Amino acid sequence: MPATGHLMKYGVTAALSTALMAAAAWAGPAASASTTAIRDRATLASVSCPGGFRGVVPPGQHSGTNWCMAVGTYIVKFKSHALAQVWNGSKWRLVPRVPGTELSSVSCLTGSFCVAAGGPTGAEQWNGHAWRTVNMGKPDGGLNGVTCGSPKSCTLIFPRLNGPEVQSWNGGTKWQVQTKTTNVCFGPAGAPCGLASVSCGNATNCVAVGTTQYQFSSDQKPSSVVWNGKRWAFSQPPGVGDPAAMNAVSCAGRFCMAVGGGSADFLQGTIAIAATWNAATRTWADVSPDLGHICNQKAACAWASVIACGSPKLCVTLGPAGPQAWDGQGWQPAPTVHTGAGSSLGALSCGQNFCVAVGYQRIGKIRHSLTEIWKAGSWTLQKPVDPF
Questions:
Q1: Phi and psi at residue 239, in whole multiples of 5°?
Q2: In which band, very low, low, confident or very high, does the pLDDT at 2 lie, cut at 50, 70 and 90?
Q3: Which of 299, 302, 304, 300 is nearest to 316 (CA)?
Q4: For the chain, percent helix, then strand, then coil, each to nearest 5?
Q5: Which end of the chain is more exposed for a tag (fewer CB within 10 A), N or C?
Q6: 242 vs 188: CA distance, rounded Å
C-alpha cells in the first residue's frame, strides 16, 4: 500500500487515495480459504474472458469469443481445493484436476492460454486441456492481479512500501520491477502516491493507474504509466478534485477505461471520475459519470471497486455506487440479480458483447460459487456447478 503521509486539503485527508487504491487491490470475496464457519463451500475469486477486442489473434489460437475461465477455491470436509470453471457461451462446466488448494487470479489470452495465481508453485498455465507448472520465476509479491498482453508479456503491480510499481515478465524466467519508468512517487517523501491497478489490452498497450502528489500541501492528482510494446512512460489522466486518484483500469485492444474518485469542495465530498485511453492517439478523455456526492468530505470512498471492458462500447463496474455500464456514449445503472444475504460479486471480465461477474452465494446452509452474465442490457443468474 502507498504511504499516506499527512495531506490535508479542504478538509480531506490523504486517506482518500489510500482507500481508493485499496479498493483496486481488493481481490474479491475469495481472498481467504479459511475453513471456519461453513464446512462445504465454494468461492470464485477471478474471471477472464478473452473474447474482448484485442486485435489480431495469433495463428492457430481461437479467440474465445464466448468463452471464460473463472477460478477460486472450494472446501469439502474442511479440506481446501483449487477451483476452476469454464463457460462456453451457454453453460458452465468444472475443469478437472486443478492443482493446489486455491487459485486467486487468472488472465486468459485465448481459450488455450491462461495464467493463474496459485497452485503448488504459485503460477499455473492452462493450455486448453490441462494445467501445467509455468517456469515464470518467482515474482515478488506473487501473481495476484496478473494481466497478460501476449504469451510472452505479463505484468502486475509490485507492492513497494514507498509506492507500488509495475513488475513485468518478458517470457523468460525472471520478473523485473520497472522502478525508473513506473515509479510515480516523484513528490516529497511520505506523500501519498503509487500505482493501484494495471491492465493489458494487447502486447503494445498496457496501462497502470494510481495517484501522484506533486507538492506536499496540494496537487494530488490521478496518474498513470502506459506501455507501447517497448517502454513505459508517464501519462497524466484527467480527473477533477484534489486530492484525486485512479483505483482501477481495464483495457481491450487499444482502448482502456480508468476509474477513481476525487474531492469536490463544492459538493463537500467525493465524486466519481473516469477516463478513457486511446493507445492509437495516446490521449485521455474525461468520461466521468454524474453520480453526485458519493461520500462525505472526511470519508474516503471509491464509486467502483473493479472495472472490466470488452470493447470501447462495453465496460461494466462493480462497487459502492452500484454496478454501472458504459455503452461508448455514457454511463447507466446496471443492477445485478439480487441473490440475498450471504452473497457477493467481486470480480469481472468482459467479452465483446457480454460480461461475467463472479463471487459466492449462500443457498441453504452451503456457500456456492456465483456467476452472473451481463448481455443485452441485463444480468442473468447462472446455475452453480460446484463439485459438491
A1: 165, 120
A2: very low
A3: 304
A4: 5, 50, 45
A5: C
A6: 17
